[in-house]
Structure formats: structure tokens, C-alpha cells
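#structure-requests
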Amino acid sequence: MFRAFMTSLALLAFACSPLFADEADGRLDIYFIDVEGGAATLFVTPNGETLLIDSGYPDYGGRDRDRILDVLKNVAGKKHLDHAAVTHWHLDHYGNHAALAAEIDIRNFWDRGIPDDLQEDAKFLERIADYRRASQNESKKLKAGDVLKFPSKSSPLHIKIATASREVIPNIGKPNPHADRHEPRDTDKSDNAASLSFLVSFGEFKFLCCGDLTWNVEGKLVTPNNPLGKVDLFMVTHHGLPMSNNPALVLAIDPVVAVMCNGPTKGGHEQTQQTLREVKSLQHLYQLHRNIKLDADQQTPAEFIANDAITQECKGVWVKASVAPDGKSYTVQIGPNGKVRTYQTRDDHE
């Protein structure tokens, strides 16, 4: 009886811990799931709704699918996905939507629209057929300027689509003092340039995720004016690769905290690291992986890196941001036992 009593107490403590998503706490939780240089970002809203943006690589013994399911079920305590979005049609971003749908109920699918073909992927028609079946060919198309509103008992929560299919929201707002840092490059014809960008607002808190958006469209978005304003949290674009992360955008949004979803050999590029060091408001950069190609002083300090091992030995530790119900502060931590750091939401978003 004593053992049963202690087990019940342990389960109760787990369910009441801040790591276990609960609608009653009124917080917005964002999990950056390690998919080895792909992308998978899970939101749990104050009302308990779930949104997954991208789903990592397929195959590898179901590695990325299982990591997503572990965070969804065992960390966030959810049994289904209310929404699953795809930023663009590269395998490291939509590779597990169909596999996840075979394991759990996904109630809404969102994307930029499905192209007839994809030049850079010889197996696209085969792979997109799986996605069509999973979504029952009823995914919802998002375009630049669309706004998704989520019920919330605490602060207002909505997501504005800033870019989609190479189109951007109107270039209104204050002049961008860093506009001259945009130097046009050759046109990127890949699907990266067509990425959806999500500007999340929760009360006064703002978070930006641009998928794999590339240089010229980033420049188009924020020059000569900055319609995004400044943000609190930034998911470093395209895993930290240098064909993205145009300084005209990164310096304009001036994030306080950034999270880089890189792998041990993919992303986390030195050029992007240098751009982030220029950001005046940046307090901390979190990396999902140590970049084994760079020296320690060329990337964020070890205490802000979730995974140090090479892929074969990686445990897939996640990074979590959790925003207070009033949107005026947020915490970031690495894994279930990581140090919880608190940041104040900025008061100068314009």
C-alpha cells in the first residue's frame, strides 16, 4: 500500500510539473524538437490546442517520428494534433506528416499549396501522395497576410503568415535601419524561397519562424520598411545556413533569444553565427546541436547546446520556450532537467 501511495504521489507531481502541458496554467509552450538538422516545432496553446510546424526526416528507423511523438505524448501530455503545418516541400520538413497520421489523429493540415512537381526532388510525386492520403487531400492553403486565431483564456493568441509562395506581406511599418545590408543574390528557384513564415503573437510576446526562407525573399520582406517589428524569440532560419539569415532581416527583428535547429554537420554556419553576434538585443542563442565543424568560440557556449554527440549517439534533447499567461515574460530550458532561464518580453516591438 505504501508503494502504491508513493507511486500515486510521483504521478501527481509529474502531472503538476511545469513540463506537463496543462490548459489550466494559461501558458503558451513551444518545443523545438531535435530532428538532426530538419525542423519540427510543437506549440501547445493556453487552451490546450496543438500545432506542429514541420516534421523532420522520414526513415532512420522512425527516429524523428518517434521523437515528435515522445514530446507530444510524454512531455506535453497530448494524444492528438489539432493542426499540422508544412513550411515547404523539402523532405526534412514534411517527411513525417503521413507517418504521424498513421499513429495519431491529425485534425487539420496546413501548407502553402501542393505543387504539381518539385524539380529538386525526383521522388516528390511518390512522397506527396502519402501526404495527400494522410490529409485526405483536404489540406488548407495559406497565403501571405492570412491570420490564424486561437482561443485563449489568457492573452490573445494569433499567427500571421508573413511569407508564402515567394509572396510577402505589404512593406509597411517603420523604415528598416539595416535595409542597406541586403545585397541581392541570384534568384533561388528552390522551394526554400517559397517557405511559409509564421509571426506568432501572444499578448506582448512575439516569435518568428520562417522555415527555410532564403536571402532575396527575406530582403523583399523587410526592405525598405520593417513590417515585422522587433521580436522576442527567433527560430534561426534554414538551420542557420548562410543562403538564409539575411542581416537586413535578422538585425531588423533584433531578437532577445534565438533557437537554432541545426544538426552536428548541417547548419550552424559560421557566417550566420557572426550575423547573430551583431544583434544588439540578443541575450542567448540556443543550438539543438554542437556544430562539430566549428571551434567552441565560433558558436554558442556549451551550456546553451542541447546535443553534443554525433548523430549515431545523439539522445535527441529538445529545447522548450514557455510564455507566461500575460505574455510579459517567458522561460527557455534545455531538456527536462535543464536550467530554466527567464526573459522579460520587450516593450519596444515597433
